[in-house]
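Write out structure tokens for Threonine aldolase.
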Amino acid sequence: MRDSDRLLSGARPATVREKLAELSAAAPVDLMPDFYGDGPVRQLEERVAGLLGAEAAVFFPTGTMAQQVAIRYGAEVTGRTAVALHQLGHQEMHEHRAYADLTGLRAVHPTGAPRNPTAAELTTLAEPVGTVVFELPMRDAGFVLPTWAELSDACTAARGLGARVHFDGARIWESAPYLGRDLPEIAGLADSTYVSFYKSLGGLSGAALTGSAAFVAYARTWRHRYGGQLFQQWPAALTALTGLERELPRIPDYVRHAKVIAGAFAELPGAQVFPRPPHTNQFRVWLPYPAARLNEAVLAMARDEKVWFAGGWQDTAVPGQAMAEVSVLAPALEWTARDVIEIGLRLSDRVQM
């Protein structure tokens, strides 16, 4: 991928020297590093709070830490030890159930359908919950989003139950076009929102929580208790600020072009695409070949043709069928539908050799 001239999915990884040059370019000559969260970290927090229309924001080194703090707060202010999570949500799939092991909370699953819960499903929960979590978009369901009306109604239903609403908004930046609302209006539906700085914006690492001043003050205290009060985090903060400046304005273009790319994928023999059209700039594609052969062919094409198609193929429950996630970023804007079809057919030929 690093040496490819053309990339369809993802972005070319930067070297350490390139990242250092980016940091140097982003930092004013007289900018001092942060010391326990001031300086550029505080600038980033103020920028994010403004973007999401929140009273305040607090930087975290990881999203996993941030989300545990958010749902802990919901349990404490409501006195309820249950939290409404989806079985495919990030807390269940990618955080080793930290909400249970570190915080002692229990999960209630409002629905088994591969999407966020509806208002009707929330009103029939068997027990009170302190927080209802919505993941925007739900990555492990295929980067799917509810409609604006569905999301609004579900948030209203959650509050009617006396619960807080928390948005797992790691990819909220690319959710706005589908929802048809700006970021402050979307985040305004929730009591707290988590955002990521590296998934779409190209930052080194880091996350933030936004919400009321009281919530953010609580989050700062628990960030320290969880070990997230680092001495200096200015490299992550500077790359996040750069991403907000350079990448955030381009995300609507990525979302629009993802529809072109996904439509072209669907023309390949035996291919399946979901969702179609994509809700964001990311979607899933299935091809009728084993994952090992597809990954070998992708690497061979990158070596021989300097073209990176889509990697990370995984076998599925259907024998001989593999799935990959496609992320449409800046390099993919140069690809036409015809490019995707022609190169996809060449990849299929390699798999069958």
